[in-house]
Amino acid sequence: MALKSTIYKAELTISDMDRGYYATHALTIARHPSETEERVMIRVLAFALHASERLEFGKGISDSEEPDLWEKDYTDAVQLWVEVGQPDDRRLLKACGRSERVVVYSYASASDVWWKAMNSRLDRAKVLKVINIPSEQSQALEKFASRNMQLQCTIQDGQIWFSSGDQTVEVQPEVLKQPG
Question: How far is Cα 96 from Cα 81, in angstroms, rounded to an integer?
Fold first, then answer.
């Protein structure tokens, strides 16, 4: 018998002063049996950084044809494709062909090794942005993971603060590749 996904619920309040975006989202997040809570929280972080009324979670790990997050326009064309982790170059190049923008959020201690192997293979990916979340910060975010979460994310001048209750984590993403 196959294991089922674990469902996480989150009320995420976003105050993104850089984009002028202020909203509260009720998120339902399906955690694949092979997925860690750290990865779940990186997906929530990615949602907060790109939040819009049309952004939604894709099947991600469960389906090679869908990203972790995506935003489609009213014609069903993919405007934003977000991957979490360390996807292979073929998947990313395919995503770049299907979307106006592609963003990867890598995390964990092996991110440097992955990026050294991928960097030259992704030179032609003109719409790709790669961001690394330092492992100590992603592990701190993991501590916020629970089946029912109340989260706040504040973004100002490129700085990101995630909080839950009286705990706050500052996230300082490292941009490894810019589009263009």
Answer: 8
Contacts of 20 (CB under 8 A, 6+ apart): none
Checking phi first, is residue 123 left (phi over 0); if not, alpha (psi -120 to 50) or beta? Answer: alpha
Sorted by sequence, the CB contacts under 8 Å of residue 87 that are 6+ apart come out as 104
Tokens 């030259």 belong to residue:
120
Q: What are residue 129's DSSP bridge partners? A: 103
Whole-angstrom distance, CA of residue 65 vs CA of residue 13 = 29
| Terminal CA-CA length for the chain | 46
Q: pTM value?
A: 0.94
- Alpha-carbon span 180 to 171, nearest angstrom: 25
Contact residues for 79 (Cβ-Cβ < 8 A; gap 6+): 54, 71, 72, 73, 99, 100, 101
- What the block records as the tokens of 135 is 């492992």
pLDDT, tens digit, 9 for 90 and up, residues 49-97: 999 999 999 876 666 678 999 999 999 999 999 999 999 999 999 999 9
Helix (H) or strand (E) holding 42: helix 37-50
Q: pLDDT tens digits, residue range 103-134?
A: 999 998 889 999 999 999 999 999 999 999 99
Q: What is the CA radius of gyration of the chain?
A: 16
The pair of structure tokens assigned to 83 is 């991957």
